[in-house]
Protein 1
Amino acid sequence: MLGLATLARVAGEIRRDIAAAHARDPAARGVGPLEVLATWPGVQALLAHRVAHGLYDSGVPLAPRSIAMLSRAMTGIEIHPAARIGRGLFIDHGTGVVIGETAEVGHDVTLYQGVTLGGTGFATGKRHPTVGDNVTIGSGAKILGPVTLAHGAKVGANSVVLHDVPANATVVGNPGHAVRVDGRRPEGPDADWVHLPDPVADAMKSLGQRVSALERALAEATGREPEPAADVRPLRPVTGRNPAGG
């Protein structure tokens, strides 16, 4: 049952949650701890979850789900009372974040708005993701099923992850593909979402080059002039400084 040791542990977790907001949210720098606790929905949702999870583990009926429901209404963040959350989780903005019943979140994880750690189908048992330490998941990303995101993984905005992600990999696309960024394995919550590789666009470019080569070969064989190649223009620059300041 709840006691002094549990209250002391919750107080320590609150301090770490506030410290995580100060460390990873530029808007929180220079803001006092009480103001962060009172006005940051991600911190408030975690506080409510710490209480709900403690009650859930103690077998208290009704109260854990009621706390989770009220927290969702106030913050826009839904965390099932049974979900296991590690130290130093930071939920930036938070609206639309969903963390399912059997989800496990490691230490020093960063989630942006709209992230779903959800299940698939009607399976029983472990059906939600396991997120390792120091993982960063971008806005709108969906991690579905009992998959594992290993230490230091990064998931690009709006990616859909259906398979395990190795340590320090960056995942982009729908379905998600693990890629490397400039051969580096960046550590920490910062992510340059602007210059992430696009495997789908790369595949389309390769296909276009192949079609052009076949058209030239056909023109040589038939003696006709080849059709001019289509002008493929990049939608955005793939090199240069991160405009977000990273």
Note: Helices lie at 4-24, 33-39, 41-57, 63-75, 199-222.
Protein 2
Amino acid sequence: MQATTPAGLDRKEAAIFSQLDPARLPKHIAIIMDGNGRWARRRHMPRVAGHRAGVTSVRSTVETAARIGIPWLTLYAFSEENWKKRPKGEVGFLMKLLSRFLKMEVPTLNQNNIKLEYIGRRHELPEDVNERMEWAREETAKNTGMVLTLALNYSARSEIVDAFKSMAEKAVRNGGLSHLHVDEEAVSQHLYTRNLPDPDFLIRTSGEMRLSNFLLWQCAYAEIYVTDTLWPDFRGTHLLEAIAEYQKRERRFGGLNDKHVPEPRPHKVKR
């Protein structure tokens, strides 16, 4: 099927998009944004310069995803391990960079009809950062286009732990642990991502072949694409090239052909 070129794509993006099947675009793309430090090191610059350069990549990727009609995009922005293991100076810079990014990008998000959400242990972040995050979320809450989710102070293992704690607490409120009901749907409904469908496509930059504790439950059947491109060099064209590779794959979900593909987990968005 010939794709109609969406407004806003540059010539190179439009050329790549014209080769895609618009009916087979991934619904939910998750991206592990990796390589900021190496990008800076190769240029004999401090690590923070790589983080600053990565903001341009976020803007390009988010805008392109929204323009081509991707319903959900989740970016791994700041892991729980980053918070605990990085130097305090770098962590402080990342917090300030996040606040500045949110302040600067809200107008662009609104222009592109993008709704902003978050996953992760937000309560552990600085109060002023939380306030800016909530402000940005509220400013975009009425948008009806792509949902952009930022994973901040996020850990998949912590998410699963928090889900089981929530399930146990709910059972106790309902009369005791004898009321605890555990199955895949119950777990999914207690994850941070309960209002998101599972990703069908996971992209990782910088060539590293690992999930880094990102959406471990949700990415059980996601197609994985790894590029050697470092995150600060990643642009909308790279996103479209990744989608072109995604469309070459046959998704079987453990079955032998389309007849064996299960129905996707129901999506329950609360707007």
Note: The radius of gyration is 19 Å.
